[in-house]
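Worked example 3 (structure in, sequence out).
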């Protein structure tokens, strides 16, 4: 059974469905592009930097040698956590902005 939109004829339904499919295709393209992008963040004035991809997978960690202090492991842990969280936030923000851009302000229930 096909979904019917009240007050719409078959031609306008077909046109609307085509536009929805185009929107979904565009959203999928943007999602894939963002998933393949890299997002970096640093902490401690650049002493620690982390890069993740759009899937929130960590790709790299860089630490300046002078930041590694065996007497203060907690500071290093805090810097790593801050850099990881910030890079993940950047990736999430990019995905959200990309989806909003693709939707063009449309609010369709069930569509990202």
């Amino acid at each position: 059974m096909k979904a019917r939109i009240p007050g719409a004829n078959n031609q306008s339904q077909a046109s609307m469905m085509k536009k929805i499919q185009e929107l979904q295709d565009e959203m999928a393209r943007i999602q894939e592009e963002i998933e393949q992008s890299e997002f970096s963040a640093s902490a401690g004035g650049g002493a620690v930097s982390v890069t993740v991809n759009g899937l929130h997978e960590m790709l790299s960690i860089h630490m300046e040698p002078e930041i590694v202090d065996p007497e203060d492991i907690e500071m290093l842990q805090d810097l790593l956590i801050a850099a990881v969280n910030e890079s993940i936030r950047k990736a999430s923000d990019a995905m959200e902005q990309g989806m909003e851009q693709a939707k063009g302000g449309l609010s369709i229930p069930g569509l990202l």
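Notes: The chain has one domain: 10-103. Residues 73-103 form the longest helix (31 residues).
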